[in-house]
Structure formats: structure tokens, C-alpha cells
Amino acid sequence: MTKRTPLIAGNWKLNKTIDESKALAGAIAAHVGAGLACEAVVGPVATSFAAVKQSLEGSAVGLAAQNTHWEDSGAWTGELSPTLLVDAGCGYCIIGHSERRQFFGETDEGVRKKVGALLVHKVVPILCVGESLEQREAGKTLDVVLGQIDAATEGYDAVALAPLVVAYEPIWAIGTGLTAKAEDAQEVHAAIRGRLAELKGQSWADSVRILYGGSVKPSNADELLSQPDVDGALVGGASLTPDNFIPIIDAGVRRAES
To answer: What is 7-245's CATH topology?
Structure first.
């Protein structure tokens, strides 16, 4: 099995004041310190970027944005560009999350543009893909997920896409308490890696980290991360407290050391 450094990323969504964000980031930074065998990233609301960055200083924890726009500047009211994310200290950005697709009209083409814009500015895109419960029950999981992969990577070669991280998040498991069985997650992750190999070559596909997201918590993290193609987790609700997020990071460390 190709060794890939596990990545545990916390998506705080629309939660936490500046003071609350500082406290949470500080607790995570204290645990991770100068570095672990597992990579850890936190994604606060944009108003907390500066405070969280300060709390993370001296630690190996990375800072992620929850969205971006593909243009550097201009008449895009309410948007944040990759240029501004870099200026704020973000090294990662979550894009294509199902909540953005479902509630804010995010399109496959928009996600593709965001991938390219982030790569230009050397920000790691965490590309979210996933199917709804209806699509899963109709047997369309791989059609939907692989179609999203195809659309997001079209026009970019393996060299440009080298930093890309993929996060498989079945929509029906996000915030519901439902989680894909470990073997089901592995099946989809393996299919994603297979499609990446078809698109851009096996060597690149073997290097891409594919995260699982969807009600990941301390009680199921080890089982999910035991799968050969599950390289980490994109964590929602459980990333909002140190007592839940830190054990998931520790599960990533165990994965790295196994």
C-alpha cells in the first residue's frame, strides 16, 4: 500500500465566535505541537482567520477556508479570493461542499474554476464530492461521485493537480449521525482512486489523499481509517470540541504508524 500522510481536517461551518475559535484552535495546537505523523487542519469562519492563525502559531496545524471565489479581485460582493486567503494565512480551502452545491447554487464548472485558482496560489484544494440518499438508493453513487471528479479536474494535468485532496462526503451522512460502513466507504474511495488513475495516471492517483466525511467521530474513526484508500477525514460536528476532534487526530496518527 502506498504510504500517504493522513490528513484530519475540521470544517467548523457557521459556528464559533472569535473568542471561541481562539480557544478551540489553541487546544488543538497544544495537542499537535510542532508536528505529528498525521496532518491536522482547522477551517473556522472567515471572521476568525486572524485570531485562529495567532492561536496556531508555533504548531503544525494548518488553516483552511470553507470556500473561495475563482477571481483574484473585482466586483464580487461578499466573496473571498485565493489572494485574500493566502494573505490571511490559509494554506487549504474546502470547495464543492454539498451545502454549497445544495443551498448556494455551486456548480461543477464553478468548482473546477476554484480548483484552478487555488492551485495557482498554492492553496491546497480539499475537493468535496458525494451523492444524496436518493441517488444512492437508485444505484447512482459512482456515476454521481466520479462525474464530480471528472468535472473538477478537467483541463488540469497531474503536475498542476499534485496538491489536490479529495473528500468523499455522502450527503445522507452529513450531520445526520449516519455513517457509511467502512467497507462501503472503501469501495467508493477505491473507485475514486481508480478514476483519478484513468484521468491523470496511476502515479498521481496513488499520491492523492482521499478523505472520508459524514458523521466521523471518535468511536468510528479508527475503523474508517483502517481502510487502505481512506487517508483521513473531513470532520464537521465532531471538530467543534477538543474532546471529540483530538481523538480523531490521534486515530490519524495510528493510521500513519500502522
So the answer is: TIM Barrel (3.20.20)
